[in-house]
Structure formats: C-alpha cells, structure tokens
Write a structure and sequence with these properties.
Elements lengths: L1 H28 L27 H31 L3 H14 L1
Length: 105
C-alpha cells in the first residue's frame, strides 16, 4: 500500500509540473519579432507601462506572512496529530471512554 501511495504522489507531482509548464509556456514563448534591420523595416516603438491600480507592496507582504503563518500552524498541528496516532498516546483515553460507554449500555 505504501508503494501505491508513493507512486500516486509522484504522478501527482509530475502532473502538477506538466500543468504549470503548459500554463506558463505561452507567456515564455511570446516574443516581439525582430524587424530584421532591412531597408523597409521600422524600429520597434518604445513601450511605456502605465499602472493605474494594484495592490501596495505592504499588503502583499502581509498576505504572504499570514499564509506562511497559517501553513506553519497547520503543519505543526498535523505533525502532532500524526505523532500521537503513531505512538498510541491517546490509547488510555480511548480505553477509558470505551469502558464508560460499555458500562452505560
């Protein structure tokens, strides 16, 4: 079963990578054609970027820090839950609850 999970994880990672490349490829391959420098060609016009809106840098930093903090908290909680399940730390509490419910019946 462990081998199947590992294979599925690898396939998922490869699928995600392929999807990322498929989405990013058009942007990477989009280039302005070179005029060639012949007698009939004109130089490319200068492009001026105009930004009228957008999100300030401090908001982007705040969102990134919040997402990193949330991911860290989730990782710690999942790690503790996994370690408790692996070590059987909740076994005594589980046995006590089962005996109480068995006595109630």
């Amino acid at each position: 079963m462990n081998r199947i999970h590992r294979c599925l994880g690898v396939l998922t990672a490869l699928g995600g990578t392929l999807l990322t490349l498929a989405v990013a490829a058009p942007a990477v391959l989009a280039t302005i054609p070179d005029p060639g420098g012949g007698p009939g060609s004109r130089p490319q016009p200068a492009l001026h970027t105009v930004v009228t809106g957008g999100m300030p840098g401090w908001q982007i930093t705040l969102i990134t820090a919040g997402a990193a903090l949330a991911a860290a908290v989730a990782a710690v909680l999942l790690d503790r839950a996994w370690a408790a399940r692996r070590s059987g730390a909740h076994g005594a509490g589980l046995a006590a609850r089962q005996s109480v419910t068995a006595q109630a019946d």
